[in-house]
Design brief:
Layout (H helix, E strand, L loop, with lengths): L2 H14 L6 H15 L10 E6 L9 E8 L2 E8 L9 H13 L4 E5 L3 E5 L14 E4 L5 H8 L8 H26 L3 H11 L6 H31 L10 H4 L15 H14 L8 E5 L4 E5 L2 E11 L6 E6 L7 E6 L9 H12 L6 H7 L1
Parallel strand pairs: 3-4
Antiparallel strand pairs: 1-2, 2-3, 4-5, 5-6, 7-8, 8-9, 9-10, 10-11
Helix pairs in contact: 1-2, 6-7, 7-9
Length: about 375
């Protein structure tokens, strides 16, 4: 499975999704090319079997959209929905659940041509799990997710190996979910673990509560430090070998040139939050940033003329805001003050609206309009 083929499909999804009207069009435009990139012959009904019979006892006429077969045996069932449908609706997975039980396939995939959710029977044999063990987003993937996807390609498929892979992926996914929960709201047990290593006094309820915020902040700062280090590696910067002087940190840097701009971990965290919000609207590789002395700008394709929003985080005052340009090119911005980064999610719909405007075919920059006058 070549990553270039996946990128080509992603490009097609981005440019033509608005013109796809139904499930059948989604299959033809997005899902069949995906199966081809996977290495399966969509024109061989013995390999990619459309409308595969999945009749249950006492219930006839049940058919799954596709059954991928090897040696005349179904190995993967695919239930397809329109690219405009949300896969979260319980009825979608329940359909696949019924089909899974009626066939000998070990894996099921629920997809809308953008999101591909993979299921198997880890919890109970021959009963499809309620939770997917793997999810692939054609508009937001990396090398790691592509490597997992390759395991299900025709050239790599090995049912016995995939059972262990599925189990590990599911457990990894659940562990990451627990980590995310603890980062946002550490449990008393989680807090006590750290307190026992750094505090020698009596661990009263008030002490644990006090350390809850300290640990929450410490974990976020640690993650931000890792992110910043990675950015420095990519950008070719030399990381600091000594911690910054506390007194100097309280003094604003001299604004004498671009080299004085300091991208903070908090700004980078805000950048990643915005990328996660926009992941269903656009390939997030196109979302980039440019830091300035006045604001942290987030734009499309690295173009300052396609600003998505601007973050203004004042370290000395602690004030934070997010500004989103309007969609009529007046130069005006709608600014929202926020107390913490989580409040960025409160303007998610405005960010999505902005990115839709920037990616529409009729979009013109101010300079283009000026030239046409």
């Amino acid at each position: 499975m070549e990553i270039d083929k996946l990128k080509a499909i992603a490009q097609k999804v981005e440019t033509s999704r608005s013109q796809i009207q139904n499930e059948q069009a989604t299959k033809t435009a997005f899902i069949m090319p995906f199966l081809q990139a996977w290495g399966y012959d969509v024109f061989n009904p013995m390999e990619v079997h459309p409308e595969y019979s999945a009749d249950l006892t006492g219930l006839k006429g049940e058919k799954v959209d596709y059954a991928i077969c090897l040696d005349n045996q179904p190995i993967i069932l695919m239930e397809c929905k329109s690219c405009h449908q949300n896969l979260e609706h319980p009825k979608h997975s329940s359909q696949l659940h019924r089909y899974f039980n009626a066939t000998g396939a070990n894996f099921g995939v629920l997809t809308n041509g953008i999101i591909y959710r993979f299921y198997t029977d880890i919890v109970k044999d021959n009963i499809m799990d309620d939770k997917p063990f793997f999810e692939f987003n054609i508009l937001d993937f990396d090398d790691s997710s592509v490597n997992e996807l390759k395991r299900f390609s025709k050239s790599s498929f090995n049912s016995d190996e995939l059972e262990e892979v599925a189990r590990n992926l599911l457990h990894t996914k659940e562990v990451k979910k627990v980590i995310a929960q603890q980062l946002n709201d550490p449990s008393p047990e989680f807090v006590k673990f750290f307190v026992s290593h750094v505090y020698s006094g009596v661990r009263t309820a008030s002490v644990v509560e006090k350390f809850k915020e300290i640990i929450k902040r410490s974990l976020k700062e640690y993650i931000n430090d890792i992110i910043k280090e990675k950015f420095e590696e990519v950008l070719g910067k030399e990381p600091e070998t000594n911690p910054p002087d506390t007194a100097a940190a309280d003094t604003p840097p001299e604004e004498t040139g671009e080299d004085k701009i300091n991208t903070t971990p908090e700004e980078l965290e805000g950048f990643y939050i915005i990328k996660s919000i926009l992941r269903e609207e656009i390939n997030t590789a196109r979302i980039q940033f440019k830091d300035t002395r006045s604001y942290f700008g987030i734009n499309l394709d690295g173009k300052v003329t396609k600003t998505v929003c601007r973050l203004r985080f004042h370290e000395r005052t602690g004030k934070k805001s997010i500004s989103i340009p309007d969609n009529v090119e007046t130069g005006k911005e709608a600014t929202t003050n926020i107390n913490n980064l989580d409040e960025i999610y409160g303007v998610a719909e405005f960010l999505k609206s902005r990115i839709r405007y920037l990616t529409q075919d009729t979009y013109k920059s101010k300079s283009e309009k000026t030239e046409s006058i």
